[in-house]
Predict the 3D structure of the following.
Amino acid sequence: MRDSQSNTQAHSLALSVYTFYKFIKLSDDQVEILLPQIQSLGEEKNLEGLVIFGREGINATISGQGSALEAFMVELQKKLGTESLDIKISPTDFAPFKKFRVKIRDEIVSLGKPDIYPTSHNNHLSPEEWHRVMQEEDVILLDTRNWYETKIGKFSGAIDPKLSEFNKFPDYLKNSELPKDKKILIYCTGGIRCEKAIYEMQSQGFEKVFQLEGGILKYIEKFPNKKFDGECFVFDHRVAVDQELKPTQNYKMCPHCGQPSGEKLSCLKCDQDAWVCEECVKETHRQTCSKNCAYHYQREPLAKGRKQFQGHRFEVLKKRSQSKTQID
Ligand SMILES: [Zn+2]
Ligand SMILES: [Zn+2]
């Protein structure tokens, strides 16, 4: 285990982030055998990240040195007995996770429907096809992500269902007035949510649904600054990536709720920079740089406090990932 000092030094070099998923049917025995193997493989290669793993397959966002990631992928594909893992790659100058963790889940993306198992290609559009269809055909664009993701960027003209979580998507559809016979294009960050969403839509009678292969990340790679407006939220310490797939310069993670914040203010307690989201800023005690400053502000609003350790954003992320554990 490296200490945080050497960690920082190692990461002053350019790192890569690999995002990938694969639906593969695995038995409980296979999951049990592979889990510790994947965990040690990631640690061996000095990677960080989160791997969601289970009977449905694998869904991961991991980072490290390029050569280490490549070596990891070769080994992983051998273990999983698959050759075709589609990887979305983005650059970063810091590690977006602190550790390498493999977690077992019933679903590798949580729609609340483990019975939906995307087996084969189901109306995927490549970024090129998507780009063309979007401009040439009369279609409805539907974002399948959560409200705090869509608020910092989405495809122009897309409908935002304002989901709080992905598992609210089936109910949203039932109550929506989307026409069932019209061509609907759906998209998410890296494609995995749409793999399940499309089955749900088809089972609810939507006849012409198409999904963006590789999600926003693949689209931006091929078509930066075109039809996707803004930045793409990611479920890790980068908060979002810009049109060059680099970590955002415009948002930081709100220390109180973990959502992206684009506004900087001065902490009421310790005067340090505080990036607080537009919801939290409505509460005075949350006009603070950390949960700790918020707590002490509530107890003694008039007394100034000590400056907070800036690692608080990671702590927020950690707590949040423990409760939700979502990646895309
Ligand atoms: Zn907030
Ligand atoms: Zn503070």
User: Anything to note?
Assistant: The domain at 124-219 is CATH 3.40.250.10 (Oxidized Rhodanese; domain 1).
